[in-house]
Amino acid sequence: MCCDVKRRFLLLYATQKGQAKAIAEEIWQQAGAHGFEADMHCIREMDQYNLETEKDPVVIVISTTGTGDPPDTARKFVKKIQDTALPPDHFSHLHYGLLGLGDSEYTFFCNGGKTVDRRLQELGAQHFYDTGLADDCVGLELVVDPWIDGLWPALKEAFLLQKEKEGMSSDAVSSSLSAAPHVGHELNLSSEVQNLKLEDERVRSSDVLTQKLVDIHLVASTRDTEPSLVHSVPPVSQSALNIPALPPEYIEAQFQDTCGENPHLSSLISEGTMFEVPVTKAVQLTREDAIKTALLLELDIADTVFDYQPGDAFCVLCPNNVNEVEELLQILGLSDKGEHFVCIKVKQGTKKKGATHPQHIPERSTLKFILTWCLEIRAVPKKAFLRALVECTSDAGERRRLQELCSRQGASDYTRFIRDSNVCLLDLLHAFPSCKPSLNLLIEHLPKLQARSYSVSSSNLYQPGKVSFVFNIVEFPACPSRPVSRKGVCTGWLAELVATLLHPNKNTLDTKGGSSSTEKIAIFARPNNTFHLPADPSIPFLMVGPGTGISPFIGFLQHRQKLREEHPDWAFGETWLFFGCRHQDRDYLFKQLRCFLENGTLTHLKVCFSRDSSTAEVAPPKYVQDVIRLYAKEVARVLLKERGYFYICGDKKHMADGVSNAVVDILSTEMEVDKLEAMKIVAMLREAKRYLQDVWS
User: Whole domain around residue 284: which residue ranges?
Assistant: First the structure.
């Protein structure tokens, strides 16, 4: 018992959407098999732990949100440790390992974890294990799995050093450690046994599994040499598998009668105030033959206290597709229970550490309400969910394939056929028809249905009582793993909602004749603390916004136009806008930009069209980053001599990085410095909040 206590470590997680918590729970579950006890807490529960007096090793799993911020659950913690009054040896007693989660599509990759890591180091804390940075762009598991594997020997070493400092002899140390399982050999053996048994007495040996494997989906020919979602090939099909531990059940859903009312949608948001506002106008900005369909919606906020600045964003509460909800109910055999109220409780005696009632699920609401407004039924299933689905699958071949997809050996199959194919629960239930999960399991594993964020495309000074936004209708074409095409959850719903308002072939902001609507949507504010116009109107700025990335800059220009009208004596700096789209006649979203140019609000407008053919002797530039290079001297002048601002909005991977590279090249050439020095200057501009991005992947 004494040995167990001494092998305790503190496990903290800071999560935004549940990823960090799920990984922390995986660490907690594995700890016992390695002879450790994880004392797990959310990092915001500062009354449950005390780093100032913590003597045992600390493991931190932390995600990143927004454009590089720590998650909401870590705000108080970060504020506390960033207190400048803390001495440099404040955490000199602390030994920790940190796993950061992020997405390299964004500029400040893993910045939440890096911020905490850097500050702990500044306050004297020491690593007992190297920091891991997992990238959701390529798959978190590529870093998470090996990082967790390496954690156990690192903890072992940390306890050895700790005991040596306490004056224990090496013999005593060896003796105490021998009480723990032999990690390497025994874990591997345990995994292989689990692979064969999977806690299922119906499958008792590898011979039975091998025999059943022959029958994996009759639709998959024995001559198949290519893997698919439902079919594997060697070496995966012949491998002993390392699979995750079975997540403990912790939710109990009880069906009740059909009497009562569902909670108001406002109960689904934890921060801010929700407003239900009517859609007063809808315009299709692209031609029917454009590759993407862009819509502009105008909302009436006159009867609310909703406030915003150009550059802000707001969130839309959207439901899951009604047909997909009905389909899911049918597959689960719950079609007759849709209107029944469901009472959600934590299962008594659950082995899940710190099990609580999910905050995004009302204590009492109808089943349809839960599946429509609370759970992200389109979410790509995590490996822990696949592992749990194994236990709900009766066909041995289907069970084996699900095991493979959640195993280390099947990591590339998981990435290819599930993650990259945007496969969701419905797709899995169609592909593995003997899988019949319970409602409890869905509530445990499906994440919260997130509100969708959109940039404001208007100015409350220019259009009092109105707020506009622009979006492309997201399309997911069919693929082998997902034989049905789908529209985005929110954009598809919005398009259907305003179908009667849309005017075909309308590709300008001229909305005369736009009809009013009684349709309402629920929104709440999501202010942006930095992506705003310069406080001093005399400061010049450059805007780069191809496609729907132009959205916030329409608000900028509307606001600037109104300020110019109201304050003719003010000095206004020059404004540049770089806009690009595929075809000038199909998806030039805002042709009224010419009006801003003519009235002097916009000083320079530079456009490009990537798919239009040209008969010019010298082909015009196709992309905004190419256009920017043509105005290198002007860009350098505005940024360096006139201390101007640089704004980018739009696609991160295919545009924002290219623009950043162009700016680096421009500064390198114009200042006659090497690229490394130019990159440092761009970093300084970011730090000074003069190089600002509102990007998405």
Answer: 269-318+451-505+518-529
In this structure, are 581 and 671 located in the same domain?
yes
Task: Work out the end-to-end distance of the chain between its first and last CA atoms, rounded to an integer number of angstroms.
Answer: 50
Range 683-697 average pLDDT = 91
Pairing verdict, β 251-255 and 475-476: unpaired
**Max alpha carbon distance in the chain (Å)?**
87
State how far the Cα of 91 lies from the Cα of 88, in Å rounded to an integer.
8
pLDDT value at position 80? Answer: 95
Nearest to 162 by CA among 117, 120, 128: 128
Q: Is residue 153 located within the same domain as residue 30?
A: yes
The single-letter DSSP state of residue 638 is I
Per-residue pLDDT band at 167 (split at 50, 70, 90): low
Q: What is the CATH number of the domain that holds 305?
A: 2.40.30.10
* DSSP H stretches of helix in 418-514: 425-431, 439-445, 489-497
Instruction: Give the whole-angstrom CA distance, residue 603 versus residue 579.
Output: 14
pLDDT beyond 80 at 87 = yes
* Distance (Å, whole) CA 159 – CA 147: 18
Which long-range contacts does 1-5 make (Cβ < 8 Å, 24+ apart)?
3/176, 3/179, 3/180, 4/37, 5/37
Q: Which of 119, 116, 2, 138 is nearest to 59 (CA)?
A: 116
b/e burial code for range 632-653 (CB count within 10 A of at least 16 → b): bebbbebbeeeebbbbbbbbbe
Q: In this structure, which amino acid lies at residue 612? A: D
> Which residues make beta-bridge pairs with 275?
523
Q: Where are the alpha helices (DSSP H) in 567-674?
A: 593-598, 624-630, 632-636, 657-671
Question: What's 568's domain CATH number?
Answer: 3.40.50.80
CB 95 within 8 A of CB 137: no
Residue at 1: amino acid letter: M
Region 567-572: mean pLDDT is 97
Q: Which residue has the tokens 């009759």?
A: 218
Give the pairing type, strands 486-487 and 475-476: antiparallel
Residue pointed to by tokens 């592909």: 431
Count Cβ atoms within 10 A of the Cβ of residue 16 and give its class: 0-12 exposed, 13-18 middle, 19 or more buried.
Answer: buried
**What are the residues whose beta carbons fall under 8 Å from the beta carbon of 37, sequence distance 6 or more?**
4, 5, 7, 8, 9, 31
